[in-house]
Design a protein that fits this description.
The chain is α+β, with helices and mostly antiparallel strands. The chain has one domain. Helices cover 36% and strands 15% of the residues. It has six helices and seven strands, in the order H-H-H-E-E-H-E-E-H-E-E-H-E. Strand 1 and strand 2 form a beta hairpin. The N and C termini lie far apart (46 Å).
C-alpha cells in the first residue's frame, strides 16, 4: 500500500494538488505585504511542497500528463513581477498591470481602466532580453511566459489560437487584480 503524504505545511494547509498550491502561493503574494523573512519562508516551503506534489502527481499519471514545471521559474517570475516599483521611472506594477495565471503560463495585461499601451514602459523589465523573461504578443496585447523551463521558440503560422476570453473560459484562469485595491 502506498504511503500517504501528510501536509505539515504552515502556509499551504489543505493544499492537495499542484494547481491548488500555485493558486495559494499567488494569493499569499498578491494579498499580503510580506516582509523579507516571511517571503523567504513561503517560497522555501512552496519549493519543497511543489516537488512532493509534482512527484505524487507524476507517479499516478501517464507520460503525456506528467508535470515538468519548474517551481523556481513561476515563483521567481511572480515575486519579481509583483515587486516592480520605481518612482523615478514611474513604474508601479500593481497600479498599472494585472497578472494572470493559466496552468503553467503567466500573462500580464494592462490593469482595468489603464490604456492598452501602459505595459510598453515596462519592456526593459519584462523582456526576456535582460528582464524577467516574458515575451510580448501583439495579437493578445499582453506579455506571456511559459514556466515549464522549455526553451522558447516562436510558433509561426499556427492557426489554433484562442482569444483571451476563450482561453479564460476554457482553462479557468486565476486572474490576479494588481490595482491599488489588491491589498484590501
Amino acid at each position: 500500500m502506498a504511503k500517504k503524504t501528510t501536509n505539515t505545511s504552515v502556509y499551504f494547509k489543505g493544499v492537495k494538488t499542484l494547481s491548488d498550491l500555485e493558486q495559494k502561493f499567488l494569493e499569499i503574494f498578491t494579498n499580503n505585504n510580506l516582509d523579507e523573512a516571511t517571503a523567504e519562508a513561503v517560497t522555501k516551503e512552496y519549493d519543497e511542497f511543489f516537488v512532493v506534489l509534482r512527484d505524487e502527481h507524476n507517479k499516478k499519471s501517464e507520460e503525456w500528463q506528467r508535470v515538468l514545471a519548474n517551481p523556481e521559474l513561476m515563483r521567481t517570475a511572480v515575486t519579481q513581477t509583483l515587486a516592480i516599483k520605481d518612482e523615478e521611472k514611474d513604474l508601479d506594477f500593481r497600479r498599472d498591470c494585472t497578472l494572470e495565471k493559466d496552468g503553467h503560463w503567466l500573462f500580464i495585461y494592462p490593469a482595468e481602466g489603464k490604456p492598452s499601451d501602459v505595459t510598453k514602459k515596462y519592456t526593459s523589465v519584462f523582456s526576456w532580453k535582460g528582464g524577467i523573461g516574458f515575451h510580448f504578443s501583439k495579437r493578445l496585447g499582453a506579455w506571456y511566459m511559459d514556466c515549464t523551463g522549455k526553451p522558447w521558440k516562436p510558433r509561426k503560422g499556427h492557426r489554433g489560437y484562442m482569444t483571451t476570453e476563450e482561453r479564460r473560459n476554457t482553462h479557468g484562469c486565476v486572474f490576479l487584480n494588481s490595482a491599488d485595491d489588491i491589498a484590501s
